[in-house]
Amino acid sequence: MLEKQLKESKEYLIGKGFDAPEIGVVLGTGLGKLADEIENPIEAHYNHIPFFPLATVEFHSGKLIYGTYEGKKIVVMHGRFHFYEGYDLQDVTYPIRVMHQLGIKKLFISNASGAINLNFKKGELMLIEDHINLQGGSPLAFKNVAKHGSRFTDMCDPYDVSMRKRLIEIAEKENITLQKGVYVSVVGPQLETKAEYRMLKIIGADAVGMSTVPEVIVANHLQLPVVAISVLTDECDPDNLKPVNISEIIQIAESTEPKMITLFRELIRTL
């Protein structure tokens, strides 16, 4: 069934002109400006792509964009899917499988997240070095998964070491603060309590969000090298916690995004 669905999605996109992209990019909440820099863009709205879920979050656009960026053919997810929207984890990660079918060789992921590590400040970037999955499930937990890759996918180093090293070098050269840490993915959509922030710190998290981990698991299942950056939009200090202002989080994500774009642009240029 999955093979048939992927084939139809792929054929539709090839028919639209999505010709052998080399790099896939997933843009997180408030992080859409990179798409504006794509040359000769071709758009495919999610509601037109066979078997694609629909983005239900108001600040997620809901389209795939194909074109040229720094001399490379790329395909960008402008708007992603979340477990909290009511999708299962296979739906959430379906676009990663479609981009892989189209031919991508590298995957870049971004997200907006909260800083658990209080040495990190909102408006900074964090390179994800490892993660903790607290979403209560796996996108690989379905029948016939072994047809698409190893059922028991190794996760000893889920984020590509060479691309991480290159991003650190670029950040130093561009004078961009790039923290490094562990991302924990929770279900949401409610924000965390003070006690939950304390727990997340105890178990080793540096930042918390509601995405990314399912996509990274599937990328590893497909043996697709992946790298991910969190834009830190708020500071999760349980001793000084105030109600979260979602519009402020979006604003911080948007104002920090140019630094993330610089890192991705320079990495793409050197691949």
From TrEMBL:
A Gene Ontology BP annotation from the UniProt entry: nucleoside metabolic process
Enzyme Commission designation: 2.4.2.1
Recorded metabolic or biological pathway in which this protein acts: Purine metabolism; purine nucleoside salvage
Enzyme class: transferase
CC terms in the record's Gene Ontology section: cytoplasm
Entry keyword annotation includes Transferase: yes
Every Nucleoside phosphorylase domain range: 22-269
InterPro entries xref list: Nucleoside_phosphorylase_d, Nucleoside_phosphorylase_sf, Pur_Nuc_Pase_Ino/Guo-sp, Purine_phosphorylase
GO molecular function: purine-nucleoside phosphorylase activity
NCBIfam families for this protein: PNPH, PNPH-PUNA-XAPA, PRK08202.1
Recorded family membership: Belongs to the PNP/MTAP phosphorylase family.
Function of the molecule: The purine nucleoside phosphorylases catalyze the phosphorolytic breakdown of the N-glycosidic bond in the beta-(deoxy)ribonucleoside molecules, with the formation of the corresponding free purine bases and pentose-1-phosphate.
Protein name as catalogued: Purine nucleoside phosphorylase
